[in-house]
């Protein structure tokens, strides 16, 4: 692996890796999962290789760490899920696997660690190819709850309080009360849904309302935004040309990565991206945003890159100031002329709608659809805001009945 510094928005590029499928960043190292099932760890400061975690026999789909970025987490534990149907529990102090969770039928697509006040013990949430969501005791690896959530595979999930949000290749996202075994809401994507992210933010000005939104990243490259209080679709974001792989919020802004090789920064008040980070040459299946003003992305182009998020935010703050004063600069013109801004080697130019950096070799997510050609889509900015969101009362009742029939709650077993 080589360790490079660049002068643009990309602060550091770790290159010469295997294709990066999943990523986790800790206080002193980052780890990535590969197609082979191997997990590799590297020092953040020097790029030195630290460890290999061997055990999975197929692609490592997702990883989550206990208390990531917290020095109090001792020893740090890593949870990894794989296409081999297992979740492994790793002691990062020794590099040894100290537990294996089994029970999913087929690939385990996603995993999330949760340790909140009031819980008897830390929990691990997983979603699989079998359409189920499982809840595990993160300390022992015992399965505590299983819910049949979707017809298609569960691509991503997020626990928010007592609700777990899930999304699937069946084109639906759901809000589920796991403890009660109750379906709370159903949301539609514009196509199969690859990823999601819930965001809550308190109002910053008098008269404003708090923000409660759910973002859905779809296989056709679009992102739907829902108000979770009303279940209404309030915006549809367009800019990616291929499947949206990951979504994350920071400082009220949304960040997305895609099979088109781009990272986009969105202000939810606009249907177009404010900024595009450009540097990867292949699909970007993973992102980790840090509180220090940077974020990490992993790509099939065999690199992990570190980006200057705070620097870009400062550029955008200056741009908004220029807009408010009516001063037109080259930077201002680029913002108005294109669908957002794109950085190419340090120069800011209007972004193009081409799929630069699109994948070579057809590694698109299984089940993802080919993007619709320009001109064949409806005017989504106008239609999606009035789209039916919970699929109507009858459909919600139908989904609820089907959901209830699939709920089961095994306890005290590691698999099952």
Radius of gyration: 21 Å
CATH superfamily: YVTN repeat-like/Quinoprotein amine dehydrogenase
- Regions with little confidence, pLDDT below 50 for 5+ residues: 2-7, 69-74, 328-390, 408-416
β-strand percent reads 35-45%
Terminal-residue CA separation = 41 Å
Q: What best-fitting shape do the alpha-carbon axes yield?
A: globular
What would you say the CATH architecture is? 7 Propeller
Keywords: Repeat, Ribonucleoprotein, Ribosomal protein, WD repeat
Region (Disordered): 342-416
Biased composition (Low complexity): 345-356, 365-374
InterPro entries: WD40/YVTN_repeat-like_dom_sf, WD40_PAC1, WD40_repeat_CS, WD40_repeat_dom_sf, WD40_rpt
Summarize the SSE layout with pairings.
Layout: E1 2-5, E2 10-15, E3 22-25, E4 29-33, E5 39-43, E6 49-53, E7 60-65, E8 77-82, E9 87-91, E10 96-101, E11 108-114, E12 123-128, E13 132-137, E14 143-148, E15 154-160, E16 163-168, E17 172-177, E18 182-188, E19 193-201, E20 211-218, E21 223-227, E22 232-237, E23 244-250, E24 253-258, E25 263-266, E26 275-277, E27 286-289, E28 294-299, E29 303-308, H1 309-325, H2 330-337, E30 341-344, E31 347-350, H3 380-383, H4 392-406, E32 407-408
Protein name: Guanine nucleotide-binding protein subunit beta-like protein
InterPro entries: WD40/YVTN_repeat-like_dom_sf, WD40_PAC1, WD40_repeat_CS, WD40_repeat_dom_sf, WD40_rpt
Organism: Eutreptiella gymnastica
Descriptive account of the structure:
Residues 385-401 have a biased composition (Basic and acidic residues). Pfam families: WD40 (PF00400). The chain is built from four helices and 32 strands. By secondary structure, it is mainly β. It has a single domain (2-309, 359-408), classed as Methylamine Dehydrogenase, Chain H. It has a six-stranded mixed β-sheet with strand order 23-24-25-26-30-31, with helices on one face. The chain starts with a strand and ends in an 8-residue tail after the last strand. 44% of the residues are buried.
